[in-house]
Amino acid sequence: MSEMSDIKKHQRVNQTLTAPLERPALQWLAAHSPAWITPDVLTGLGVVGSIMCFGGYWLSGQDVAWLWLVNLGFLVNWYGDSLDGTLARYRKIERPKFGFYIDHTVDAISEFLTIIGIGMSPFLRLDIAAFALIGYLLMSVHVYVRTAVDGVFKISYGTFGPTELRIIIVAVNIAILVFTDWFLAPLAGGLKPFDLIGIGLAVALTVVFLVTSLKHAAVLAREGK
Q: Which domains are present in the chain?
């Protein structure tokens, strides 16, 4: 079996701010999960959480209180998405290729539902949300390509990963609930505060994708790989 397809040898890198708390919490949850909760059930639950986020953001145009559903959706998504792999490893029922394939296919669906959901809300323009989604998917592509080439699955950049991103968005949602009028007030060019944040995030993701891709390509070229 070639190195590029040997998923069992992939090195998982997750050095985030919340990792020292998250890892033992996931281990505890895995040890205390009933038998009917399986990795596949958890993966499906993660998608349910993303659907809750999408629906909550969409309905927030009618009542901003629907953002509480979004925050609950992020919690459900974290529980399902973060625990499925831990539970499989704890019970020694890993299916490396199936797990990798399904997990990251579902991740793409969840990313689409969440980010486009924000674009369906009154706080972020849909075209800007789509731009941010493209930037996020570009970074995902970089992670998966590097995993195939180097066998290193790096899900964090610096000290930030998916869990940190969820926490930030939940905090922003709470800020919107408290300062709704400010987040709806148009600024320069008719853009709202969230629009400016979305543009900055999309540009940053795209730049990071280009810089990291070029740097890694240069390293591989020097090594003759």
A: 3-223 (1.20.120.1760)
